[in-house]
Amino acid sequence: MFLKFDSIRNIRDLGGYLTLDNKIIKPKLLLRSSSLNDLSDSDAAKLYDEYHLKTIVDFRTTKSFKKRQDRIDYQKINHHHEFVLHFLEDHPYEMSQTLRPFDFFMTVYRGLALEKQAHVAYRHFFDHLLNTKDGAFLYHCTSGKDRTGIATVLLMHVLGCPIQTIYYEHLQTNVLAKKEFGEFLKTHNNLSDLEYEYYECYYIAKKEFLDEYFRVINENFFSLENYVNNVIKITKEEKDILKKRYLQ
Asked: pTM value?
């Protein structure tokens, strides 16, 4: 569910999604978003007072994390930086990078499945979830689409959501992103094919990228369940704790 914040784009609440055993994710506890470096005072107050925000996990690169810090009260919030891919540390997403934009994102999604740093970062993500006893938990990257999207895939799977729901939530980004991309194109109507591909991949969450993630997971680890259990190493006891805390 999209939330109304003036200074945060693509902020959503996972509350309301149904699991395979007919439980519902509790509202106002699990929030995903874009970066918070432009967070307004009024939106910050809303996060603190209405959502009782306790923990933030920032998946951005080290450069982005340092250059555009989240604008929050670090005395109130447990804030954790967990960069996800060495590939992105070394190859920032820029027009000048050597891969075509579509191929670049396919490479990113393969890395989100295979790279050791991704395994470490997402394991830490679950550690932070387990250590958050009350209040809301917010996690984000730059646009809240890819690194945040895969964290959501893993979390919704652990909570017991069906694959159709996981795909649906991942592609909800496009409800706003397609409008934003359309507005961008109105003022940039002379783009080259490469430029168009670059900005489309920047704005739009593509099913092909998530398909590639699952293909790589299944090819290398047999199933997402096996990947969660034996690579991210989420135990049954930890799953039970998260289900008790976040489902109703």
From this structure: 0.97
